[in-house]
Amino acid sequence: MKRLIATTALCLIALPAVADTRIGVSMTSFDNPFLTILLNGIRAEAGKTQGLALSVEDAQLDVAKQLNQVQNFVANGVDAIIVNAVDGDSTAAITQTAREAGIPLVYVNHPPAELDSGMPEGTAYVGSQETDAGRLQADAVCALLKGREAPKAVILMGPLENHAALVRTRMVEEAFARPDCQVEILEKQTANWNRVQAQDLMSQWLTAGLTFDAVVSNNDEMAIGAAQALQAAGGKGEIVVAGIDATADGLAAMQAGLMDVTVYQNATGQGEQAVRAAIAAAQGQAVPPETWIPFEPVTRHTMAEYLK
Q1: What domain count does the chain have?
Q2: What residue range is the signal peptide (predicted)?
Q3: Which helix (H) or strand (E) holds 199?
Q4: CATH code, domain carrying 112
Q5: pLDDT tens, residue by residue, 142-186
Q6: If we measure between CA atoms, which residue out of 248, 250, 244 comes closest to residue 264?
Q7: pLDDT of 96-111, one tens digit each?
Q8: Residues 111 and 165 in one domain
Q9: In whole angstroms, what separates CA 248 from the centre of its chain?
């Protein structure tokens, strides 16, 4: 089922065929299941437009490499640039490089630092409100823990420099401090979005004798890794396991009973909107500085709607 709701008029723009338009794309990493979905969305949307050519690069989690890729895009005279930022706090040089060259720049999924003060002219951002992701996840976990006495949880975080990881975690912490959802957080550590690292971390916690009622993960991959560690230790039992992104693997884990909650982030929709914005900007059209695609909570009762 394809779900896409954008909160700007950008999705209403009808883009004609373009002649020899080139868009440079720099991705944080090719080795990430969610970002693979995002990149596939970019490629699929670009494939619908005759005369459009993409040049896609893997920044390999390296801020300096990503800046160099953008500089190369500028040197090669692309018509627009799409960046999935490695580090949102280190985007100033990328933005400056594109603006000085007069090339439209669209950030996607990972918000740049510039978003806080307003996107500069010639730049735009396409993504989803991370505050909603953490809030929706926490609300679903709270509902599942209702009735338990003094419930406890552990949190698996993404990279500590990543905006999404920080915001999602903060929203969970705030929710767990509410009078209607009193959940004690026993541990909070990073597993860098990675399934294997999450599995190892969870194994360490279990070996140390840690007991808890919920595992709250900043993404599905870490939630899956944690669930696998629980299974290896005898099963997750009544422990609530929650992720974010509703990836194919995440939904499969829910079907298998390894996960209870996730939050759908429309990676495909973000990729499509980023391409549309880049094309429109390259053609001289006005592009909204921000395009927000909503998160949606997913439980075992609703997951059938999200299965492809």
Answers
A1: 2
A2: 1-19
A3: helix 195-207
A4: 3.40.50.2300
A5: 999 999 999 999 999 999 988 899 999 999 999 999 999 999 999
A6: 244
A7: 999 999 999 999 999 9
A8: no
A9: 14
